[in-house]
Amino acid sequence: MHNLKVFKIVSFSIFSLFLMGSCEKKFKNDNFTAYFGGEVTNPLNRYVLFLKDNKVIDTIPLDRNNRFFKKFDSLAPGLYTFKHEPEYQYVYFDKNDSIMVRMNSNDFDESVVFCGRGEEKNNFLMEMYLKNEEDKNKMFTVFDYDLNKFNKYIDSAYTSRKNYYTTKKEALKWSDEFDLYALASLDFPYYTKKEIYPVIHEIRTGENVSQKLPKNFYEYRDEIDYNNKDLTNFSPFVKYLTYMLNNMALEKADEKASEEDKALDMNITKLNIADTLFKNPEIKNTILDNIAFAYLLEDQHIINNKKFLDRYNQLSTDKGNQNEIIKIGNAIQMLKNGNPLPKVSLIDLNGETVSSEDVVKGKCVIFFWTENAESHFETVHKKAMELKAKYPAYTFIAVNVDDNQSKWKTNLSKYKFSDIEEFRVKDFEELKQKWVITKIHRAITTNADGTINNAFVNLFDVKFIEHLK
């Protein structure tokens, strides 16, 4: 075992030397050749996707040693994304960069390391990402702080982070184009904390601090370039916009309205703010789509959905993506209470294809799982068995969303899940389109006649049993 580990390290080093050797070449001014490669430990599939602005540029296969390599004859400098599904990270290429990346799917983000020409700036982005992720775990108690203590804490952390950024920038002398992302990874998580604070503070302490905020608390909003299309798909920027729009909409919300009407009003307000704030059509349409996806997948009030979509249609000019929004809206309409559950194809433990129409009969609870979320897989089954014992009139149906029959059966064989009917989806795209399955933490309940009782519930919701009659 030790020798095998040594071999892997040596072979990776040789591969790295080849890649870094290519970095020593002299390139002409019009030559935009670049290299991207690496190794995936514990791969979940046999490829790595390479994307620009959420569009797949290339699917790079893994060889038998779980390594991948690609020469790009012409690669424009900029920010790209690599995916080993379901995980992803960013990689920035300057002209003629040759970048190697190591990753382990068992601990993806923490394992990502870059080497080769262009490694320094990419490792900086990863370090900033990990620091920001580490912050999240500490912030819950920080949101309990009073305003002065909260400001002092986040300002101190920001100053420390900015010193690190400044040191790296001076040492690496990176380009202005890269600095856009380096600075965004510093600033936007800080701004996000300020946007979140009043909301989370009130939820956790019961104190409304909105009226106590100084006039300059959100002054950074005026300094942000909301129409820089290079930031449109950069996660720190997108996350900030999500919280900022929610915060601004919440300020205008009618506290006396019902939860459904409040959600509708807030999300229409978000659309209106986005329409005013974003002048670049590409950015505006992306933000409108993000708002629409989030709203339609969280709120399934049929009448309100129509009102929301009417306003969305007035503002969005991207007919291609708009069709996707309309498809989701139409699919949700089909899943309203009392409707028959749309038919999808499932596969049983014998490998036979069956229709959901023949499986979902009478009172049922349908839940979903994937091998990529093992703790959820085990926990949701145990929850289902617990509920089955209390509500024996219901049939509990587990649907696996993966595409490997033998792995599915192997995973199930490790456990003894009694009184649960197990199936695997035949075509995930069909499931996603007809049942609007975009989150694994979803369940569907049906009535005695097999019609839908509620298509958008969660087994772990404290109010879930209200749907079991």
Structure description:
This protein has 14 helices and 15 strands. The radius of gyration is 25 Å and the shape is globular. Strand 2 (47-52) and strand 3 (55-61) form a beta hairpin. The strands form three sheets. The protein has a seven-stranded mixed sheet with strand order 10-9-13-12-11-14-15, with helices on both faces. A four-stranded mixed sheet has the order 4-1-7-8. A four-stranded antiparallel sheet has the order 3-2-5-6. Helix content is 49%, strand content 19%. The protein is α+β, with helices and mostly antiparallel strands. Residues 1-27 have low confidence and may be disordered.
Keywords:
469 residues, alpha+beta, four-stranded mixed beta sheet, 15 strands
Fold blueprint:
Blueprint: H1 2-22, E1 34-41, E2 47-52, E3 55-61, E4 67-72, E5 78-84, E6 87-93, E7 98-104, H2 108-111, E8 113-117, H3 119-142, H4 147-172, H5 176-205, H6 235-252, H7 259-277, H8 281-298, H9 302-315, H10 319-334, E9 345-347, E10 353-355, H11 356-359, E11 364-369, H12 374-390, E12 395-400, H13 405-413, E13 420-425, H14 428-435, E14 443-446, E15 452-457
Parallel strand pairs: 1-7, 11-12, 12-13
Antiparallel strand pairs: 1-4, 2-3, 2-5, 5-6, 7-8, 9-10, 9-13, 11-14, 14-15
Helix pairs in contact: 3-4, 3-5, 4-5, 5-6, 6-7, 7-8, 7-9, 8-9, 8-10, 9-10
> Strand count, sense and closure of the main sheet?
7 strands, mixed
Distance between the termini: 56 Å
SSE arrangement, N to C: HEEEEEEEHEHHHHHHHHEEHEHEHEHEE
Give the averaged pLDDT, no decimals. 88
* Total of DSSP H or I helical runs spanning 4+ residues: 14
Largest sheet: spatial strand order:
10-9-13-12-11-14-15
- Low-pLDDT segments, ≥5 res: 1-27
* Percent helix range: 40-55%
Number of strands: 15
Overall shape: globular
Which percent range describes the beta-strand content? 15-25%
How large is the radius of gyration? 25 Å
Structural class: alpha+beta
